């Protein structure tokens, strides 16, 4: 199929199939006041998705159900509720193996339950898009916002992006498909946001025209054969490698794993072009920088405002893409910083670890503040962490004993 | 996919592997009455198998691939196990992803193919072992049936985990001593054919693969019913001769012994009313076709 030939034609919902660059960068935008879940629906309405498979888990249930409405309206071609996240992610894989553009959403324990599928998606080069509305991982039972699950996704071979706002979310869902489906990438995308903070709050979002949608997915641009019996059924191997305990077998597996990660690297150039860089920076000439992703960035912005009132200048690095990891960009942005503050919504501090591994003189990195289990992160906590790093005494905060 | 698609450009013919040249020239893609009798006379859709010598699973594989009514538009889904060692040699598209998720993969696949190829036949056939079908994958096996997913599930029942070295499985007989059942299995063989019937399968057969003509019949029926009506299930006894202490030559006899009317693999069949009707229609059409051919032949001779 030549996807260029369909540009300018109309789908059965009356949407004009539009060149993605024109749709995302040139078409007029309409400001709209929506919840994060509704924003997911509006992006998928315009994403020309073939198959969506849903499963209930807070806080993504609403979005997953809203896509069902799109199916009922005819914007999504196939939709059903699977039996568990493990099954859903396998059903997504089946649909993607069959050449469909596939979408799903999950969260927290669901992400963990489905985990075996994700390296398989990458290894099979399936450009599925999965929204992860991060929440706590049990136990004890928690449904509150917490980004711990991202730590596990980072090593699956998937592209991993972390949205701060509903606007990021809207644009990245659509742009995500473009990057993910590039023949030299062709990998799944975990598009993460902080559950509730983004999904359940209303925000102004500039939407692309409702009568425009992305070009359809072309499965024959895939670097591996689409499993639809429309291309010659070449026997893939004379002998299955799994049976062999020899150098060739190991080398084949090793090179394929390297190729998956090389594809993650190759996505860099597309990601930079589509989402305007892997990081976003503000005042990086300041001595103190806040570096983080997701809504921890939003809280960082508030902290920066509070500190500015006291005459303390703090810059900001917002990390947008976690895979590919913007190591070089972060190294460059933080080269003059004396203190690198990394606020996070999880107990392990995966972001701080990544940053420490990327910058010289990593004792500059302050691994915190960190909150978990659904705790909010008032900007004052970040302010206090920064003052602490600077050796400034601040009023004692409850429970911190400082 | 038409047979045209697999043709090799003349300029490249010589450099293609000989088995691929053979596949293009002599395979039975598109042959309407293809079946087990083509085995040995035409290029088979399975290249050398990599199973143990005398493994009944290898026989089953060859019969099934020879009997698929529409291999040129069939995608197979496998799972981890001995079958996953054979699939790389099979000349229809096939998917191996994880252990036990085969019916979930097939659900997504069948729906995607239906979206992408409206009005065209695209058969999906799952082929997995009993561990994958009944133990680790049971949830997904049953849920696909509850949802009335239109594909065929074939279980190679060898009553244990063969590929990992002979551990107890849900389809193992009660009392059988195996790895992980050191004092003998304590519960009955899971009655999956009955469960399949109650779960919404429209065509369910349990049999051994001792008779290729029977395998051909049930495969064709199962694929046709799945294509038109809903889920179908075949449970085929393919004993693991290695793990039950038999020799290479004894697989066939083991199947014959186990399919006697009083034995656990006595032929069992459940067919729903709509499936009965469909199979009767197909049989009537075939009969008509044969009669017409006979008439034509008689007219030519007259």
Give the helix/strand layout:
The complex is a heterodimer of chains A (402) and B (302).
Chain A: E1 16-17, H1 20-26, E2 30-35, H2 36-45, E3 51-54, H3 61-73, E4 78-81, H4 85-97, E5 102-106, H5 108-113, H6 117-123, E6 129-134, H7 148-153, E7 159-162, H8 166-180, E8 189-194, E9 202-207, E10 212-213, H9 247-275, E11 279-282, E12 288-292, H10 295-309, E13 314-319, E14 321-323, H11 327-333, E15 339-341, H12 350-356, E16 365-366, H13 379-390
Chain B: H1 18-26, H2 56-67, E1 74-77, H3 83-86, E2 94-95, H4 102-116, E3 123-129, H5 130-136, H6 138-146, E4 152-157, H7 192-198, E5 203-208, H8 212-228, E6 232-237, H9 251-258, E7 268-271, H10 273-301
Parallel strand pairs in B: 1-2, 1-3, 3-4, 4-6, 5-6
Antiparallel strand pairs in B: 5-7
Helix pairs in contact in B: 2-8, 4-6, 5-6
Give structural notes:
The complex is a heterodimer of chains A (402) and B (302). Chain A has 402 residues and is of the alpha/beta class. Chain A is built from 13 helices and 16 strands. A seven-stranded mixed beta sheet of chain A has the order 4-3-5-6-8-7-14, sandwiched between helices. The longest helix of chain A has 29 residues, at 247-275. In chain B, strands 2-1-3-4-6-5-7 form a seven-stranded mixed beta sheet, with helices on both faces. Chain B has a single domain, classed as Thiamin diphosphate (ThDP)-binding fold, Pyr/PP domains (Rossmann fold), CATH 3.40.50. In chain B, α3 (83-86) links the parallel β1 and β2 (94-95). The longest helix of chain B has 29 residues, at 273-301. Helices cover 39% and strands 12% of the residues of chain B. Chain B is of the alpha/beta class and 302 residues long. The interface between A and B is large, with 45 and 46 residues.
């Amino acid at each position: 199929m030549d996807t260029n030939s369909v540009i300018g034609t109309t789908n059965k919902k009356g949407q004009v199939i539009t060149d993605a660059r024109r749709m995302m960068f040139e078409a007029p935008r309409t400001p709209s006041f929506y919840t994060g879940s509704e924003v997911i629906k509006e992006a998928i309405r315009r994403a020309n998705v073939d198959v969506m498979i849903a499963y209930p888990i807070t806080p993504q249930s609403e979005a997953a159900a809203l896509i069902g409405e799109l199916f009922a309206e005819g914007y999504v071609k196939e939709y059903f509720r699977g039996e568990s996240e493990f099954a859903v992610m396998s059903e997504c894989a089946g649909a993607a193996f069959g050449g469909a553009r596939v979408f799903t959403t999950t969260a927290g324990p669901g992400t963990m339950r489905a985990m075996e599928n994700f390296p398989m998606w990458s290894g099979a080069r399936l450009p599925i898009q999965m929204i992860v509305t991060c929440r706590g991982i049990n136990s004890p039972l928690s449904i509150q916002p917490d980004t711990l699950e991202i730590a596990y996704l980072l090593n699956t071979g998937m592209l991993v992006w972390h949205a701060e706002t509903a606007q990021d979310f809207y644009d990245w869902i659509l742009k995500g498909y473009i990057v993910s489906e590039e023949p030299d990438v062709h990998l799944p995308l975990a598009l993460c946001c902080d559950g509730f903070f983004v999904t359940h709050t209303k925000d102004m979002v500039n939407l692309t025209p409702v009568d425009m949608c992305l070009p359809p997915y072309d499965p024959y641009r895939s670097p591996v054969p689409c499993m639809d019996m429309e291309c010659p059924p070449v026997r893939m191997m004379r002998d299955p490698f799994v049976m062999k305990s020899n150098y060739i077998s190991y080398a084949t597996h090793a090179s394929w794993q390297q190729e998956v990660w090389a594809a993650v690297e190759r996505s860099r150039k597309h990601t930079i072009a589509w989402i305007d860089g892997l990081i976003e920076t503000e005042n990086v000439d300041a001595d103190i920088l806040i570096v983080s992703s997701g809504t921890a960035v939003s809280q960082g912005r508030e902290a920066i405002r509070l500190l500015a009132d006291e005459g303390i200048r703090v810059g900001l690095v917002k990390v947008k893409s976690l895979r590919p990891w913007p190591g070089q960009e972060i190294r460059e942005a933080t080269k003059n910083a004396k203190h690198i503050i990394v606020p996070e919504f999880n107990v392990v501090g995966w972001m701080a670890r990544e940053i420490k591994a990327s910058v010289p003189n990593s004792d500059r990195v302050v691994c915190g503040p960190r909150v978990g289990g659904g705790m909010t992160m008032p900007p004052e906590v970040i302010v206090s962490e920064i003052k602490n790093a600077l050796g400034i005494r601040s009023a004692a905060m409850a429970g911190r004993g400082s | 996919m038409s047979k045209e698609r697999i043709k090799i450009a003349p300029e490249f013919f010589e450099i293609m592997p000989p088995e691929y040249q053979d596949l293009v020239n002599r395979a039975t893609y598109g042959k309407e009455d293809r079946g087990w009798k083509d085995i040995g006379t035409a290029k088979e859709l399975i290249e050398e198998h990599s199973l143990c010598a005398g493994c009944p699973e290898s026989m089953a594989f060859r019969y099934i691939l020879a009997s698929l009514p529409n291999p040129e538009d069939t995608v197979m889904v496998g799972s981890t196990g001995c079958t996953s060692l054979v699939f790389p040699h099979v000349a229809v598209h096939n998917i191996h992803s994880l252990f036990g998720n085969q019916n979930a993969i097939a659900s997504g696949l069948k729906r995607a193919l239906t979206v992408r190829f409206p009005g065209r036949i695209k058969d999906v056939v799952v082929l997995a072992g009993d561990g994958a079908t009944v133990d680790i994958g049971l949830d997904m096996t049953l849920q696909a049936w509850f949802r009335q997913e239109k594909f065929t599930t074939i279980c190679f029942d060898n009553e244990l985990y063969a590929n990992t070295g002979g551990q107890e499985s849900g389809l193992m007989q009660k009392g059988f001593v195996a790895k992980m059942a050191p004092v003998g299995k304590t519960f009955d063989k899971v009655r999956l054919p009955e469960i399949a019937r109650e779960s919404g399968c429209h065509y369910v057969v349990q049999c051994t693969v001792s008779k290729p003509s029977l395998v051909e019949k049930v495969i064709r029926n199962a694929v046709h019913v799945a294509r038109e009506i809903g889920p179908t299930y075949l449970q085929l006894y393919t004993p693991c001769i290695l793990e039950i202490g038999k020799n290479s030559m004894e697989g066939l006899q083991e199947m014959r012994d186990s399919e006697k009317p009083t034995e656990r693999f006595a032929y069992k069949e459940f067919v729903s009313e709509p499936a009965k009707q469909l199979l009767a229609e197909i049989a009537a059409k075939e009969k008509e076709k044969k009669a017409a051919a006979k008439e034509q032949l008689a007219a030519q001779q007259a």
